[in-house]
Amino acid sequence: MGRITFNGIMLLMILQIFLVATTTGDETCESDRIMEEQCRIHTYKTVKPLLDYFRQVRNEIEQSETKEKLISDLMEKYHEIVKIHETFKKEAALLNEYKNKVIKGENDLQLCQNKVDKSESDINSQQNIILKLEKQLTDKSTNLENCQVQLKSLNSTLIEKDENIKRLSENIKSNKEHQKTLELELEKSKSIIIKHENDIQLCRLENNKLNRTSENIREEQKNIQLKLKDCETKLSQSALDKLTPTTCLPFGDYSGVHQLNVSGIGLFNVLCDSQLAGPGWIVIQQRVGGNENFTRDWATFRKGFGSFESDFFLGLEKLHRITSLQRFELYTHLVDEDDNTYNARYDGFKISDEDNGYALNLGKFNGTNYEEGMRYHENMKFSTFDHDNDKVDNGNCAVWGKSGWWYNHCSNCNLNAPYGSLYCWNYGFILLKEVKMLIRPKEAMKK
Ligand SMILES: *[C@@H]1O[C@H](CO)[C@@H](O)[C@H](O)[C@H]1NC(C)=O
Ligand SMILES: *[C@@H]1O[C@H](CO)[C@@H](O)[C@H](O)[C@H]1NC(C)=O
Ligand SMILES: *[C@@H]1O[C@H](CO)[C@@H](O)[C@H](O)[C@H]1NC(C)=O
Ligand SMILES: *[C@@H]1O[C@H](CO)[C@@H](O)[C@H](O)[C@H]1NC(C)=O
Ligand SMILES: *[C@@H]1O[C@H](CO)[C@@H](O)[C@H](O)[C@H]1NC(C)=O
């Protein structure tokens, strides 16, 4: 019994130690949860069955019914426990090691804790920063939202503007097209204008032509009017001439006696001839029958004498007045005894005034003969038996020739000589039976 008691006390003591050891181990482990867990699991695993067993044994011992039987078992168990104790010792050593490790771990942990603290403070500060940043972020996001809202409104405005631009560009397009059509129309208009300008140019040319033509026409009209005036004056002149003719021209083909009105003389009768050499001749001297005495004085030759039916001399004063008005031609018509006819023209027949002795001018000759006969008397003054104007010093050709005439050294031709002794030199002496002297305005030849 003593042994068992001792063993029991020993066992309890060991148990006690163990419990103390485990208790301290518990406290140590509590700082590190992982270690504690390991510890507990380990302790529990190793000690629990033992404890259970001990409880059971105690119960058995306390109950003390199978105490003897159990002692041997208990001894066995004790050996086992010793063994376990050995192991346990080892374990304890290990545990100690672990403990050291744990302590070191704690230190590390402390360091770690410090680090963690520092980290936490860092984290805190970081968190603060993050908070700040978050705040800023929220601010920014609100800003962003505002921005987005603005952007949206801007976008809508932009869209509107886009549409406006589209419309405007369409307008521009249509305007361009309109401009194109306008340009085409302008081009057309330009070509039309050019055509019109050409037309106008043509018109101007035409107008100029017409102007020139009209100017020509006007000039023509002027000329015509001048001619008309001329005609009228001539007509009135001729009418006047007809009323108061100074020549036989107005009477044309009407031969016979007509009345002339010549200034300085007035009205007087003349014999007009249109048979011998055309119309309008005044017969100024005629020898056709020999009934007239040509032995006449100055005054009679001045006045004129004889009959238009036979022989006559018109008169020197009348000849002077008539031939003073215009240029006259002289036509002489001679017929000799053998009926040969000699005609001659002088284109400037003119009788000067009485103061110049009624001198004879003939002009150019145009005829068949006896020019030299009459030419011999040119520029000679008229002479009568009572008016000696000839070139003969002693004596009067008019007395000798029995007639008044334009004597030189007397005569080559004396157409006033008494009938039967009428003569003219024509490359030889010819005796005449008929003489006519006629005058007509030189203008009449042109008409
Ligand atoms: C602007 O509006 C158009 C049309 O409604 C849309 O397609 C586009 O995404 C918008 N842009 C923004 C920046 O809102
Ligand atoms: C034509 O003549 C008229 C009158 O003489 C003148 O007024 C007009 O300017 C002239 N026209 C031309 C194109 O010469
Ligand atoms: C004759 O002519 C003059 C002008 O030379 C004129 O005054 C006069 O009236 C004329 N006489 C007649 C009857 O025609
Ligand atoms: C002609 O008249 C003159 C002068 O009067 C005269 O002497 C002469 O005899 C007349 N002749 C004849 C033929 O009558
Ligand atoms: C001369 O008279 C004739 C007819 O009388 C005429 O044909 C001719 O032209 C005259 N000649 C001159 C130079 O006048």
UniProtKB/TrEMBL annotation:
<dbReference type="InterPro" id="IPR036056">
    <property type="entry name" value="Fibrinogen-like_C"/>
</dbReference>
<dbReference type="InterPro" id="IPR050373">
    <property type="entry name" value="Fibrinogen_C-term_domain"/>
</dbReference>
<feature type="signal peptide">
    <location>
        <begin position="1"/>
        <end position="25"/>
    </location>
</feature>
<dbReference type="InterPro" id="IPR014716">
    <property type="entry name" value="Fibrinogen_a/b/g_C_1"/>
</dbReference>
<keyword id="KW-0732">Signal</keyword>
<dbReference type="InterPro" id="IPR002181">
    <property type="entry name" value="Fibrinogen_a/b/g_C_dom"/>
</dbReference>
<feature type="domain" description="Fibrinogen C-terminal">
    <location>
        <begin position="239"/>
        <end position="443"/>
    </location>
</feature>
<keyword id="KW-0175">Coiled coil</keyword>
<feature type="coiled-coil region">
    <location>
        <begin position="95"/>
        <end position="234"/>
    </location>
</feature>
<dbReference type="GO" id="GO:0005615">
    <property type="term" value="C:extracellular space"/>
</dbReference>
<protein>
    <submittedName>
        <fullName>Fibrinogen-like protein 1 isoform X1</fullName>
    </submittedName>
</protein>
<dbReference type="Pfam" id="PF00147">
    <property type="entry name" value="Fibrinogen_C"/>
</dbReference>
